[in-house]
Structures are given as structure tokens and as C-alpha cells.
Amino acid sequence: MSRNLTKEELIIHKNSALNALDSYLQSMINSSDKRINGKADKLSYWLKDWTKFLNFENQFLPSSLKRYKRGEIIKVHLGYNIGSEEGGLHYAVVVEKDNSIHNPVITVVPLTSVKPNKDLSCLRSGEVILGNELFIKFTAKFKELYNIAKSKNEDVQKKIDKIRDNAHISPSDVKDAEEQQRMVKERLDFLFKMRDEIAKMKKGSIALVNQITTVSKIRIYDPKTTKDMLSGITLSNDGLDKIDKEIILKFTK
After folding, report:
1. Engineering a disulfide at 28: which of 40, 52, 206, 248 sits with its beta carbon 3.0 to 4.6 angstroms away?
2. Does residue 55 fall inside a structural domain?
């Protein structure tokens, strides 16, 4: 049973925890192994993201997000992994049959792409091969959003060119046009980043049923609204049936 600590005791406890963390990070940074250096970077990023999530917790309203349905694909932050846990930003499939828009948590099965040297005839317990249906759906969605963004970029550029040819244009109009151009560029950069991630799914995706987990919706990166990149992308009934069978096999008698 926990006891109530004084402020002084809490400060001592906090300092001890931070010192232990700092010592661990420093040991990784000092390592000659570049992989361990990289883990130090990932852990530092996660600590910043985790702190941001905690600060946002009291003002978070699940109803501000879209309603998530069974089979939908989301991108969620699983945090810094320990051992063989999946961690970081990960695609996942929603497996709950009825998740309320007011529910602050959601249950998902993480997904991973098929690696070039992966032997699909020797899957681990809890791994379900889904084929490349998600690659096909992601690619179609990317093309749709890219064409929209490209058209918007062309329209904004024409507007800027017209403004530059008009000596009487107001500074505020110039500023507005430049801001629109900046936003469109950010959108295109985001889409190109997504395209690179999608390319990794070309050989197929694997559902990690053995790592099924329930997470706070604060961790959801995309989609948050019905207009976001992943909105509308769902796993087929055939894929869901495969996941269901593996859940029954692994977690029930």
C-alpha cells in the first residue's frame, strides 16, 4: 500500500529517478555501438512525447476525435519498447466491435511490414499474414490526396504570380498567399513521407496478434478527423477473420 509522502520526500524520490534515467541515457550515448546511440535518441524523443501526452491528459476529450470502427487502420504511438515489444509510431488495426466516441481508450493489434528476409512459411505464434491489401489501399489513398494537394499548390502558385504582377496589392494579401503556400508545402512533405512508409508494405503486412493492446486515444497520430490520411482505410473482412481466429487460438481454450 502506498503512503503519503511529504513534499521533501517527493523531491528526493524525483531526483533519484531523474538521476537514474540520466545515468542510463548517458551510458547509451557513451557506447561505441551506434544502435545503442540510436536507442538513446529514441528514448529521449519518447520522454518528450510522453511528457506532452501527460500535460494534455486533463484537457483531452475523446469526443473531439472521429469515431473508430472495427477494422479501421490507425497510426498510434506505442512508446519506447522494452525487449521485443513493438514501440514508436506504428500502424495498427482496431479490433473492438463497438468503441464509443466517448471512450478514452481503444484496443488495437499492431501491424508490421514483411521484411525482405522474412520466411512467411515460419510465422511466429500470434503473427498473421495479411497480404498486400493495405499497400494497395494506402497507395490509392496517397494518389487521391496527392492529386488534391498538387492541384492546390498549382492554384496557390498562380495566385502568388498574379500578386507579384500587381503593384497595388496589399501586404496582407501577400502574407496570406505565402501562408497558404507554406501549408500546402507541409501537406506535400507529409504525403511524401507517408509514401516512403507505404513502400515498405509492398511485400505485405503482418498483424501482431500476440501484442494486442489497449491504449489511450491520446496516442493516436492519424486519423484524428474524417479528413486525415488514414481515414476510411479499413482491413477487409477476410483479414479481420484471420485476426479473430488467431485471437481465439492464442487467448482462449
Report:
1. 40
2. yes
